[in-house]
Amino acid sequence: MSQQRHGSTPGEAGGVPAFPDLPEATIARLPEYLRALHHLAETGAETVSSEGLAAAAGVNSAKLRKDLSHLGSYGTRGVGYDVSLLVAQIEYILGLDENRAVCLVGVGNLGHALAGYAGFASRGFRVVALFDTDPKKVGEQINGLTVRHLDDLERIAAEESIAIGVIATPPGTAQTVADALVAAGVTSILNFAPGVLSVPSNVDVRKVDLAIELQILSFHEHRKASLTALPGGRAAAASPDKQPEDQEAVGS
Amino acid sequence: MSQQRHGSTPGEAGGVPAFPDLPEATIARLPEYLRALHHLAETGAETVSSEGLAAAAGVNSAKLRKDLSHLGSYGTRGVGYDVSLLVAQIEYILGLDENRAVCLVGVGNLGHALAGYAGFASRGFRVVALFDTDPKKVGEQINGLTVRHLDDLERIAAEESIAIGVIATPPGTAQTVADALVAAGVTSILNFAPGVLSVPSNVDVRKVDLAIELQILSFHEHRKASLTALPGGRAAAASPDKQPEDQEAVGS
DNA sequence: CGCGATTTGTGCACGCCTTCACAAGCGCCT
DNA sequence: AGGCGCTTGTGAAGGCGTGCACAAATCGCG
Ligand SMILES: NC(=O)c1ccc[n+]([C@@H]2O[C@H](COP(=O)([O-])OP(=O)(O)OC[C@H]3O[C@@H](n4cnc5c(N)ncnc54)[C@H](O)[C@@H]3O)[C@@H](O)[C@H]2O)c1
Ligand SMILES: NC(=O)c1ccc[n+]([C@@H]2O[C@H](COP(=O)([O-])OP(=O)(O)OC[C@H]3O[C@@H](n4cnc5c(N)ncnc54)[C@H](O)[C@@H]3O)[C@@H](O)[C@H]2O)c1
């Protein structure tokens, strides 16, 4: 059942008992819960019901309760969840209390925007290095960081204990960059370049492909159009919602 | 909402009357297949086996065959799939042959990068309008397009038959922008601002949240770290592989 | 001190998705 | 013409995730 016996809050690393074996689908939703909780905290709320939090996160309340129960959650029946406690719990599970160092490779159009993005810092990450291979880019100052040459990756990654790398280079060089990241000891990669990366099984890759998102939307447009052309005036019904998420990663 | 009526698909002989009812999971993978196919076509390949295409797209070959079978695919046993035919089929299904018009709202850091992204055009979309509310931004020329004020959205959306909108504004204004898009007749939204959007049930929303991706990676880092702290050198085993993918969308 | 209102945690059933395994179909070679 | 090897398409099984419905737990109040 519930092992609430775990009176210790996050912050301690030595004797982490058994790491909870969360379903991937749950993991993908935790960040959304966290964002909603932070928002609630700002409004002064001290507790939230599963119903309230679910609404704020755009999910079903039963699903939310099950998700939270998986991480041996602290909730009080008849009352709800303690906001700040839950925030701490989720941040601990996600490892955000480590304020992980992130590096960004490819300071072009997109990389520039990412380098200046405040959402990194506010959500538990530190961008500690920028890399590029273009001599015109190397040396440039962006948002307080100097663009380094990719050749320095290995050294700097070690110095700064970088575990996460973001790839924002053209598709053709993405695999090369990924190899370099892996060689430098990076074990998590977020890839913005279209295409499939091949990495060792202990490295996790997540991919963001704008065109894929648009194409999925396009499909639904196509579908909607072909339905409109049909008989029944199938219009908007009272469908609750649906705001899924997921992806998966490699592992070994 | 009135789009030209399209008769039938590019390579269809017998007639594909009803719109195929594809599983969401399949739809999410079709764009990846398409990208892989385009790549193969460039290398001169005329046919591909499910095994080959699956490898190029980073999925299981059985899954790929089932996916393609859902859209009544044309493959030849003992030979494989005809590349160009399959490209045409998937593009038709995804509605890419309509070269859909897309508008972008919020020409800031991220919006600027998106506005200049060549990947839109090359994958079946036309960015036809940019919007912002900042007087300093309105009127600016970006990549051949003039930034318009959001107030012009409704008129321009109608003129250009814009069905897809991209939101790249600060989180606080995302809902307002979404409402404006919906009012202008946009029925598909790609949202880069963190948070949950509320839209009518006939509007599809897909969300891209960088911080969520990083947090998921962070979780796996955390997990990997806690495993490393365990018993013997249980390093890499003979785990085949695993390629992710997925997300979902609203519908109705 | 007990009762009712409230909300969590979860057993269970259902449906979707993945994966295996194999028969059917196709081209080629002899 | 016939056989052989290759590849597709799919039936069936298993796993995962979702959502319902409800018992258990807790609080506030009389
Ligand atoms: N711009 C966008 O809005 C956008 C959106 C989605 C995806 N993408 C993808 O993101 C990637 C980057 O897009 P972009 O528009 O910024 O391209 P870009 O050409 O503007 O920038 C690419 C940068 O990567 C650098 N680079 C090239 N090879 C490198 C290497 N081996 N090591 C390190 N750096 C290297 C280049 O010098 C350049 O600065 C592309 O794969 C693109 O498809 C871009
Ligand atoms: N910059 C990034 O790399 C990045 C990455 C991921 C997500 N995001 C998200 O994307 C969004 C935009 O980020 P950004 O860095 O470009 O911010 P930004 O502040 O640079 O740009 C926001 C732009 O939106 C405009 N705007 C504000 N209110 C508007 C409205 N009501 N209608 C139209 N335009 C409006 C502003 O004038 C500004 O030009 C944010 O929600 C951010 O969280 C950004």
UniProtKB/TrEMBL annotation, chains A, B:
InterPro entries, sorted: CoA-bd, NAD(P)-bd_dom_sf, Rex_actinobacterial-type, Rex_DNA-bd_C_dom, Tscrpt_rep_Rex, WH-like_DNA-bd_sf, WH_DNA-bd_sf
Quaternary structure, from the entry: Homodimer.
Protein's job: Modulates transcription in response to changes in cellular NADH/NAD(+) redox state.
Pfam families tied to this protein: CoA_binding, Put_DNA-bind_N
Keyword Repressor: yes
Subcellular location field: Cytoplasm
Record-given protein name: Redox-sensing transcriptional repressor Rex
Classification via Gene3D superfamilies: NAD(P)-binding Rossmann-like Domain (3.40.50.720), Winged helix-like DNA-binding domain superfamily/Winged helix DNA-binding domain (1.10.10.10)
Source species: Actinoplanes flavus
Underlying gene: rex
Record keywords, A-Z: Cytoplasm, DNA-binding, NAD, Repressor, Transcription, Transcription regulation
Residues that hold NAD(+) according to the record: G106, V107, G108, N109, L110, G111
